[in-house]
Amino acid sequence: MNTNVLEQAQAMSGELSAIYRQLHAHPELSFKEYNTMEYIEKFLTDLGLTVKRGDKNAGLSAVLTGGLPGKTVGIRADIDGLPITEETGLEFRSQNKGAMHACGHDSHMTMALGAAKLLSENKQKVRGKVKFIFQQAEEIIAGAQVMIDDGVLENPHVDEIIALHVVPTLEAGRMETMNGVMLASSDMFEITVYGSGGHGSAPHVCVDPIIAMSNIVIALQNIANKKIEAVKPVVVNVCQMAAGSRYNIVPDEGYMSGTIRTHDMKVRNEVFEQIQTIADGVCAAFGTTCKMRPVYSVQPTINDEAITQKLLQRTREILRDDQIKIRETPYMFSEDFSCFGQHIPASMFFLGTYNEEKGCTLPIHNSKYRIDEDILPLGVAIFANYCLAD
Ligand SMILES: [Zn+2]
Ligand SMILES: [Zn+2]
To answer: Which ligand approaches the C-alpha of residue 336 most closely?
Structure first.
């Protein structure tokens, strides 16, 4: 066990909590993380690292050059908050009205900054280079691609990349990961249904888009149940519908949108084809017409086997076996970390934040979400030990 790295990280716990609380109190929304980036830039500059700001919305990165030969490892942290009004009542609660770090990105930044500090203090033992990548706008699944287009994976070329996300259902102090597909794709579909409006008392002379829309929602349930092989997980969920302006006016048209989650690109394409078929068929039956618009967003997050094995092996040096969990089934939520994995070997792991005694039980994206701060040194140690020589 390389307890030394964990001890060093634990010795930083007071400082890590201070960083975390500072970031937690000042959340900023996607692509508006101006003060957050200032803070990160100052922290990294004070460590002696040269920070590179990306062009327009492309976050920032900094490279640490180790004393030993080796590859360049990327450590990615996302930095945006959510449009939620915080209700935790914590003394370091959000000072920015209508914004909250409810997805734990404040803790991700803290752990990456902590790793930058620990590795800077142990530079001679660092293999190769470490590129710290602070990404904007993960919540709207947009920032990763902007950074990649801006060239963050080059100069120096990043050979492999790791990242973490906190997870509220796993006990605090435990990490989990798995080989292969770990998170789902995330896509959207929009359907506009066209009818012909009129008086609510005379539906027979109108073509009602609302009845067609209602039947489309029901018929879409058929996709997961009857069209996709049962062993392949898929979510097709209409989450938004809008039509009409008053109780007695049949509207001309209506709008609906929904999300699609899968672990398999073939399934993803089949789902879009099915949505089109169902929307067209139902509309024909009800005398309406429609336009379906697919909005492709991110592919599934796939953990590279070699990087994941290396991450597990290195983590076993600092955590006990009962703190490490290998997941057997992927999650249905999504991450734009998947974009990095389309270019270089990538692996993501999760760190539990659930602690009943400390009241850390609620899900992420909840206005009362909070983490157990004792996990901060663990994330620092996992990141840092991955980059250090044996
Ligand atoms: Zn989130
Ligand atoms: Zn998140």
So the answer is: 2
Q: Report whether 133 contacts 339 (CB < 8 A).
A: no
pTM to 2 decimal places: 0.92
Give me the residue spans of the domains in the chain: 3-183+300-387, 186-298
Instruction: Starting from the CA of residue 165, give the closest ligand.
Output: 2
Which ligand sits closest to the CA of 365? 1
CATH 3.30.70.360 fits 186-298, yes or no: yes
pLDDT tens track for 297-326? 999 999 999 999 999 999 999 999 999 999
| CATH fold for domain 3-183+300-387 | Aminopeptidase (3.40.630)
Alpha carbon of 173 to ligand 2 centroid (Å): 18
Per-residue confidence at 2, pLDDT binned at 50, 70, 90? Answer: low
